[in-house]
Amino acid sequence: MNELKDQKDLSLWIEIDVSALEHNFKQAKNFLNSNTNILAVVKADGYGAGAVELAKVFSKLGVNYLGVDTLDEGLELRRYGINTPILLFLPLTNEEISLAILNNLTITISNKNIINKIIEEGKRLRSKVKIHLKVETGLNNSGLKPEEAITLANEISKCPYLELEGIYTHLSSPKDSNRSNEQFIKFKKVLERLKDNNIDIPLKHICNSYAFLFYPEMHLNMVRLGTLLYGQFPLGIKNYKIDLKDCWKLKAKIINIWKVEKGTPIGYGGEYITKKSTYLGLLSIGYSHGLGLTPIARPKSIKDLSKFIAKAILSYLKFYSLEESVILEGRKIPIVGRIGMQYSIIEFGDIIPKIGDIVEINIHRSIVNSRIPHLYIYNGKPYKLRTIDGRYIDINIS
Ligand SMILES: *Cc1c(COP(=O)(O)O)cnc(C)c1O
Description:
Structural class: alpha/beta
Bound molecules: pyridoxal-5'-phosphate
Number of domains: 2
Strand content: 15-25%
Oligomer: single chain
Radius of gyration: 25 Å
């Protein structure tokens, strides 16, 4: 079969700038004590940037650990030859334990009932299973009560099939320094009691990206970084303490251009009517890729609710647009009409672009369909493509 060779054969792709990832990793590293480990979080397909390639990049840069949520995410990384230690954050069911052990994945214990099954499987497979205990300190999304953590730690440290390598907790509201501190104090109390019991657990961790930046006293000896490594500041903060470069862009080629008169209804349902004679363009991206979908948070207060309603009304009256736009050579171009399953229409006004010109699309990256091809670039040059069916193609840099 004659195959796809590089991005010239694509009309829609995600571009990942690996030089930016490298830059962010080095910034994070410089901000830490030299004895603090970094766990790079590559869950959810590396926050949409592609878990496998990112895991390779971080491993090459000397990351100490990788973190994912589920067994199949861990297996994907092992299948592609990544040997870096991998921590699975979410609890495993009994059936998943043997595969996790066989692939040398580190298991989080957030429920004491699973431990006997892990011991049984460890014994059967003649392995020493790496364990991190997750302590419940305030997030309440599953974790061991401090009491249970101490009892389990005692049990595990005596078991020849288990290696108690780490202990951690996760913050519920990182921006709230009081709450975060309460969680930190609870966690430290557990650590002190373990010390009193002469149990030494090598890795202790609590920080995500936000806590890493704002609470250096919580770094302990490992931090778990996601958002920040990808080049975004967490929770809406702007430039703080370190310099970050965004690694992620969604790009599309203009695949058709046509001119219409004033008053022409555009797209399904004819919802949008042109206000003047104008040029339109077609892109091969639609709602099935995530375009036009925004995660809606449920209003949490009367103020939130009023804002929510005001936006809905303004949008109905067309004074406020919830719609995405695209960027063509620095200019914002609106998407008009109803977004199709796999296409959308943009309105240029009086600019006349060419078919094949490339636009950048503003979109909520966490909901972007992961089947969109990923193009990896280094120092401005593409070197690898992940195709729609998840294969990796090396691109010859000429
Ligand atoms: C996702 C996740 C992180 C990373 O959070 P960021 O805010 O993206 O840095 C850290 N720890 C756990 C347990 C996570 O699930």
